[in-house]
Structures are given as C-alpha cells and as structure tokens.
Amino acid sequence: MGRNLSFDEKKVLSAITDTFRQKGYEATSIKDIEKATGLTSGSLYNSFGGKEALFDAALSHYNDYVVRHRISIYLDKTEDPLQGLKDLFHSLLKEPDGLSNGCLLTNTAVEFNNRLRHITQDLDTGFSLLEAGFKRQIEKCSTTGQIPKHSSPQQASIRLLILYQGILVFVRAGLRINEIELTLDQEIETIIRGDIS
Amino acid sequence: MGRNLSFDEKKVLSAITDTFRQKGYEATSIKDIEKATGLTSGSLYNSFGGKEALFDAALSHYNDYVVRHRISIYLDKTEDPLQGLKDLFHSLLKEPDGLSNGCLLTNTAVEFNNRLRHITQDLDTGFSLLEAGFKRQIEKCSTTGQIPKHSSPQQASIRLLILYQGILVFVRAGLRINEIELTLDQEIETIIRGDIS
DNA sequence: ATTGTTTTAAAATGAATATTACAAAATGAT
DNA sequence: ATCATTTTGTAATATTCATTTTAAAACAAT
Fold it and tell me: CB contact, 8 Å: A73 with chain B?
C-alpha cells in the first residue's frame, strides 16, 4: 500500500553507477545524481538513504551486472577461450566516445584507500569474480589444448588481475594506450603459458 | 626586499604532497593542508595560489623528489641490478605503519581522468621516469649477464610499468597483498627474460 | 469517500568549502 | 627612522554541499 515508485530501480542504479564511475565518489554531488537519474533528492533519500548508501548500491550493482556481464560475454560464453580472454583485455582499451571511465573497482580501490570496511568487502567480491573467471578460462585453455597445462592457474589468475587493474590506471589517465595495445597479447600469453616445471 | 618566507619550501611541499597522496585531491581541504603544514591559508594562497596550484606543485615535487629518489636508490645505485628491481617492487607492498598511501601518480591518474591537460602532462613525466629507469635496469641486467639479452627492453619496461601500477591499485585497496608478494618475483622474471626469438 | 501509508518535489537548513579582503608584522632600501 | 614591499594570520564572503522538513500527490484497503 502507498504510492508506487516512479522509477525503474535497475535503470536508476545504472545511471548512478555510471556517474560515480565517471567522476568518482567525492567529485559526484547529489545534484549530479539528480540530473543523471531525473529524480529529485527526496526520492533518492527515501529510496536509498544518503550519499554513502547510494554509492554502496552502485558498487554492488556494478559487481552484479557490469562485472558479471563482462565475464559472461567475454569468458564463459566464448567459443575460443584464449581469444575471449584477449578480447576482454583489449576491450578495456576501447571505450566508446573517447571516454575514460575505466572500472569502478579500480577507481574505488584507489579513492577509498581501505577506509570503509564494507566498501573494501565489495571490492574484494568484484576482484574475486574476475580472478575466478580468469582461472576458469586458463583451465579451459588447457583443456582445449590451446596452451600447455599450467603449473598454477591460481597464480596466473592473480597475475592477470594485476595486469587488468594496471591497464585500467592508464586507461583512466589516457596515457600509453597504443603501447599497451602493442604488448598486451604477449603479456597475456607469457602469464598463461606457465609451463609445469 | 619585503618580509621573508617563514617556512622551508621543500618541507612544506613534502607535507602537502603527503596529504594529497593519502586523501586524494577532492577529499583534501585547505584546512587539511593548513594542519599538515602548520601554515595558514593566507600564506598558502600567497605563495602557491589556489588549491589546484597547490596540487600542481605537489605533483611536480613528487616527480622530482619521490619518484627520482626511488629510482636512484633502488635502480641506478644498486650493486645487483636484478635484485634492485625486485626490491623496488617489493617495497611497494611494505608501507610503514600499516598505511596505504600508494603512489601519487596512480591515485592522480585514476582521480583526474584525463581532464586537466597539465596534470596529464605531469603524469606522463612521472610514468616516463619509471619507464626509462626500468629500461636502463633491464639493459644493465643483460650486461651483467644476469639475464639473456632482451629482444625488446622497451616493451619489457612498459610491461613493468603496468605491473607497477597494477600492484599499487591493490596496495591502495589493502587487498591481495600476500598473494602478490608470492607471485611477484615470477612475474618480474618472466617480463625481464624476453628471449630473442 | 475516507483513512493510512508511501512517494515525490520543493524549500529550508546548517555545515563545510575555497577564496578574498585586510590589517599587522617583518624585512631591505633610502 | 621612514618607506615600500612582502608575508602572515584572522576574519569575512559567497558558494556549494548533504541532508531534513514539509506538504501535496498517489496509491491500497476499508
């Protein structure tokens, strides 16, 4: 009972997430979020709580939709597992419209500096999603025979995770994009091809 | 002629830099900088200009002193070039007092999102310092015979740069520190040992 | 239709912000 | 010693910010 919500929560969360992703937490004002969502502060505060709660919701939404979706498309659903892995990394370098929004996990990790436990927890969740996706993909590559069996898919997956986040720093800065493009495949392959010693 | 400056500019710039490095640009207030430096806003505005100018000065100071100093100590002046390179990377994981200030280049790249040309320019300068240091070190390792001659020290140096920035994202988040510690040497060695094909 | 409940928009609030204005203090030159 | 100049601390300013308040609007149940 009572008045119905006037908005689609997933659409609104997506707009909020994009705003935080582009501008960061501190640089985003409630007014920015009002503009991005078309809602007024009354609705935002009533539905989500304050600015910090809005950010929490955005970060969770990012994990549940953006990160999972990318893993699903590029990794789990791909025909050629090695190529899918490479495509995922190369896609980081090709943001549409000359934007450099990067990754909300990267941006949040750097901005929040391990100050809020629940934020760090959400970051851990997101990083773990990527890490597990990488590990599955490495094992898939071994199974298909594209690469020799890796001595430690676990170690390789964290090395891919570091590479992933490192690239996103330069994406965000708008620097070294071409140079990274040129060396990316080689870096992926040397990580992936961890021969059994 | 006129009244003398009451402070040591290098000391003050160092305090300003530490503050921005720890909290980021937006989250740092002029009052924070007053506390960190012991100066009042009158002096700060008279000597440096506004907040943006303070940040510019801090970023330049970071390049000229912190980055150069680290390269000098860990790379250029080291007896064992391979060990120096490894030590440099491991030092990222061992910030004193449980702090996670990370690197001002990383933090700024992520926060500023390529919006201010002169900031991006300073970032490019800092990244280039690291990149060139890495390249010299790789060549030194070849000369001493610690590693075989690399097919492309240039490519290897940018891969080290990505690794460096990627690690700093996790340092800042306070996540995966032990896991990175375990795999770091291996990652460095595989980048360094780019055999001539 | 009335009641109770929730959502919404707009205005109000109060704190924090970057910056400026200004007068006193400190210095060197004359 | 006076003057001109620069620095410094304090106070003032004006804006922006997150949040709260408030009343009207929209719904479901009775």
Answer: no
